[in-house]
Write a structure and sequence with these properties.
Elements (H helix, E strand, L loop, with lengths): L4 H6 L6 H17 L3 H10 L30 E6 L5 E4 H6 L3 E8 L5 E11 H8 L7 E6 L5 E5 H4 L4 E7 L2 E2 L9 E4 L11 E7 L6 H4 L23
Parallel strand pairs: 1-10
Antiparallel strand pairs: 1-2, 3-4, 4-7, 5-6, 5-10, 7-8, 7-9
The chain binds the ligand Nc1nc2c(c(=O)[nH]1)N[C@H]1C(S)=C(S)[C@@H](COP(=O)(O)O)O[C@H]1N2 and molybdenum atom (MO).
Length: 238
């Protein structure tokens, strides 16, 4: 698997032929692997093959809009709405004042590159959900980005896992603009595309709505082991 989202998508203009070609290429990826996409990814990437790929242990910066939203900490807002008892808008300060969770984990993109021992810090998504109060009938979440383009989804059960963070630190420092700062999602047990950058809104909903990458052929459940659940439910939370 040599697809490089940086080339196919990151360099695409928002509207135009290159953007269209990028999306078609991603779609073809899903079709090509068909029903075996999850096990293929599990074996090839989760099983260590990723280490043989010539990418090195470094992040590639992705943006499907070919730009990085500029959001200050002071101007940042996270809206949590939908099927909740108390719709809430969190400022950066609000998030930073909540109990923090820190852990290290290997970051893996489905295209093969990975970065070991990345330190993350933020608020557990489950904590935010408890604060706003999830209503009966809710089964999933949708996530929106300040880029106005990327979207993601998780089931409520997935969102409540202890290693799913609304993150404001990454690599031991504030999340940079390029990496989705001031606040991004980090879904530790899943491939990188689930970790939506420049997080602007979370909506609690009664059906799972496919996100951008899933609409373009990536597995809806992006578990790193390519199967049905986390390989390691305890990532060493601190
Ligand atoms: N808003 C937004 N979030 C995103 C993406 C993107 O293009 N836009 N790319 C995803 C993918 S495919 C990966 S692998 C990771 C990469 O994170 P990085 O850009 O910080 O390296 O971000 C994910 N989150
Ligand atoms: Mo990715």
């Amino acid at each position: 698997m040599t697809t490089d989202e940086g080339r196919r998508v990151g360099e695409a203009r928002p509207i135009g032929r290159r953007a269209f070609v990028g999306v078609v290429a991603l779609g073809a990826l899903g079709v090509a692997f068909g029903g075996r996409v999850q096990s293929f990814l599990g074996n090839a990437v989760g099983g260590g093959f990723g280490g043989l790929l010539p990418f090195g242990d470094r992040f590639r910066i992705y943006s499907i809009t070919n730009s990085y939203p500029a959001i200050t900490r002071r101007g940042y807002r996270l809206e949590v709405t939908g099927l909740v008892e108390r719709p809430t808008t969190f400022t950066y300060h609000d998030l930073a004042a909540l109990p923090a969770t820190t852990f290290k984990k290997t970051f893996q993109c489905v295209t093969g590159w990975r970065v070991p021992d990345v330190e993350w810090r933020g608020v557990q998504l489950s904590h935010l959900l408890d604060l706003v109060g999830v209503q009966p009938g809710a089964i999933a979440l949708t996530f929106e980005s300040y880029d106005g383009a990327d979207t993601e989804s998780l089931t409520l059960d997935q969102a409540r896992l202890s290693d799913v963070l609304v993150a404001y630190e990454m690599l031991g420092a504030p999340v940079t603009r390029e990496h989705g700062g001031p606040v991004r999602l980090y879904v530790a047990p899943m491939f990188g595309y689930k970790s939506l950058k420049w997080l602007s809104a979370i909506r609690v909903v009664d059906q799972q709505i496919l996100g951008f990458w899933e609409q373009n052929g990536y597995p809806v459940n992006g578990w790193l082991d390519g199967t049905t659940g986390p390989t390691n439910p305890d990532p060493g939370l601190t």
